[in-house]
Amino acid sequence: MIKPPSLVFLLALSLPFLGASCAGRMNGSEKMMWSTYPLATFGGAATGFVINHRDARAPGGRVPVVFTSVHVLETMGKGPLIIGFRMPDATGEARVALLAFNPPKPAGKKKFYVRHPDFDIAAFALHIPPEIAARADVPSCLKENSLSRNGKALHVGEEVSFLGYPEVLPGTDGAFPLLRSGRVASYPLGTSQAHGRFLINSDVYPGDSGAPVFINATGTRPELVGMIIQRISPKASDFSHFAVAVDADAIRQTLALVEASEHHLAPAPSTTPKPPH
Question: Model's pTM, two decimal places?
Answer without folding.
Answer: 0.84
